[in-house]
């Protein structure tokens, strides 16, 4: 069982670190009293829990209890358990700036002074910091840089990171646009099968409808450019830490053209080995 203990200064990025570890398969428990860590591990080992990667977050929110973490770490490692202690830190100026920006109260700023809270917390965590296997100073790190650093530390060399997933959504503009789209394309310029009496009753999933909408030169040129744009953008989004992308394809009613293009794009991305799903929001709502 791989175990990680995330600790460090308030405002140094522990919440971001937890999200990153969750993304790579860790079961994360936030703000656990240190004395319960060993009991939880024993419970997992003696049960059928399918947990092989666990991350605990322990910090100054536990108050004086956090001082027991050093003893827990020593005891844990003496038992031969695999455990990495990661201490996230940042300089005082950066922490103060982050608290000012979020307008959150520092857990130890009893008198309202963030500076005094930081000073108290550094003293409280000094012994734990000295036991850390990894100390990460996040003062000048962007979220994506912190992500890259933690992935480098914790990603197993035998496991490839999950590629970005893509959900392609077809819709009709007359029913409004989907609110969760990251990218959106309007295909109302394509020939409309609605005006062909033989095709009107079918959907864009039917090859005859798709051929009608996409066979002309303009449609074909658009599809090539769409494929090129999406395949260009996906690695860039993934590099920025994005895990999923929603691509909206819209036509008037969401039955013919948008469905055909969404099916085409989803098939294209699947062939490129992207984890792809397709959803036709307005089919059945005609």
From TrEMBL:
Example of a GO MF term: ATP binding
Q: Which Pfam family, any one, appears in the UniProt record?
A: PapZ_C
List residues binding GTP.
Answer: 59-62
Q: Where does ATP bind?
A: 8-15
Tell me the keywords, alphabetical order. Answer: ATP-binding, GTP-binding, Nucleotide-binding
**Which residues are in coiled coils?**
none
Q: Which residues form the RapZ-like N-terminal domain?
A: 1-156
Question: In this protein, which residues make up the domain named RapZ C-terminal?
Answer: 165-283
Q: Could you identify this protein by its name? A: RNase adapter RapZ
Q: Which organism is it from?
A: Congzhengia minquanensis
């Amino acid at each position: 069982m791989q175990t990680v203990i995330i600790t460090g200064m308030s405002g140094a990025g522990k919440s971001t670190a937890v999200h990153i570890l969750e993304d790579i398969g860790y079961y994360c428990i936030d703000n656990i009293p240190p004395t319960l860590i060993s009991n939880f591990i024993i419970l997992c080992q003696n049960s059928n829990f399918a947990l092989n990667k666990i991350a605990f977050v322990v910090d100054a929110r536990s108050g004086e209890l956090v001082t027991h973490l050093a003893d827990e770490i020593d005891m844990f490692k003496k038992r031969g358990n695999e455990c990495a202690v990661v201490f996230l830190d940042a300089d005082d100026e950066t922490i103060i700036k982050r608290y000012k920006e979020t307008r959150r109260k520092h857990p130890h700023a009893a008198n309202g002074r963030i500076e005094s809270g930081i000073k108290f917390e550094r003293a409280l965590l000094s012994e734990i910091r000295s036991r850390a296997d990894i100390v990460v100073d996040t003062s000048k790190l962007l979220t994506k840089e912190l992500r890259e650093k933690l992935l480098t530390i914790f990603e197993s060399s035998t496991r490839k990171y999950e590629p970005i997933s893509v959900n392609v959504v077809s819709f009709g503009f007359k029913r409004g646009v989907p609110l969760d789209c990251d990218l959106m394309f309007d295909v109302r310029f394509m020939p409309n099968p609605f005006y062909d009496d033989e095709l009107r009753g079918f959907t864009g999933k039917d090859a005859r409808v798709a051929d009608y909408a996409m066979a002309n030169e303009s449609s074909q040129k658009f599809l090539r450019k769409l494929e090129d744009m999406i395949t260009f953008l996906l690695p860039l989004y993934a590099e920025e830490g994005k895990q999923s992308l929603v691509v909206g394809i819209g036509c008037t009613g969401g039955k013919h053209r948008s469905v055909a293009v969404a099916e085409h794009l989803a098939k294209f991305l699947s062939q490129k080995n992207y984890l792809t799903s397709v959803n036709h929001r307005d089919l059945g709502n005609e």
